[in-house]
Amino acid sequence: MSEYVGLQEQINRNNTRSILLLLAFPALVLGAFYAVVAFGSRNVNGGFDSHLASESFISGLPMVIIAVGIWFLIAYLSHSAMINLSTGAHTLDRKDHMRVYNLTENLCMSVGMKMPKLQIIESDALNAFASGITEKTYTVTLTRGIINTLNDQELEGVIAHELMHIRNRDVRLLIISIIFVGIFSFLIQIAFRSLLYGAMSGGNRRKDGKDSGAGLMLVILVVSIVAYILSLLFKFALSRKREYMADAGAAQMTRNPLALASALRKISGNAEVEAVKSEDIQEMFIENPPGSSAGFIGSMGALFSTHPPIENRIKVLEQF
Fold it and tell me: In which element (H, E) is residue 185 found?
């Protein structure tokens, strides 16, 4: 009983920390907007005008809130379809996969939670993830490889891990953080393309030294890059410790930590789902080793790792 209380206290502490980190995302949006506004707030002498900056910030704030709100609404309504499109996942047929359904139903009944949807990715890789924002959209997705390779106890441990992500609202937090990171990524692309287009098509049209549009786009680009990097760090801070929490919760749910440790050992080195190129989706998997992500994140390796080393997770489970 004391172990359960200890774990619950860690989950509560982690949830409080996560709320603070989530509050940092809108604060980052507002800070980035103010930085851009401040660039254009200058008095007749060319110096910074704080009064003008405040007025411009307040007058532009409703538009920022509306734009972010629309972005969230689109993401809320379409996130499941976008995930399925990115992964190629489809509904797991109950008749052909009674084993998976029985394991999931038994686990859900043991903790009194509503059973999520089950989906499958046709890949020989060994991986799984949970997704969704509400009870209607909560989903556990498994690869064909993990279903065929793991025995019942190991597969039960993996499913329990994903159910813990749903119970702890990790999937909701991750999707919200992905949405905020996406905002800054989108702004970077817009600012960069605007600068590139301006340089290619209008670089010689203005000789009067009043090319303020290009200057503003450069500021937006720099501010967006800084905000993007900070938002990534916030997102990684949300995700790393939650893998340990989900492992511990799964061990308690199944009362078999060694089975999950054995599953992770089999998953290690066999986790890459080649068809999934989206870094955001890769971060949701039970294992996303450093360097498996494409582009910037993958090139930074362990520094920007979304998961703790799988060897460390196995050691913790073996000592549970």
Answer: helix 170-201
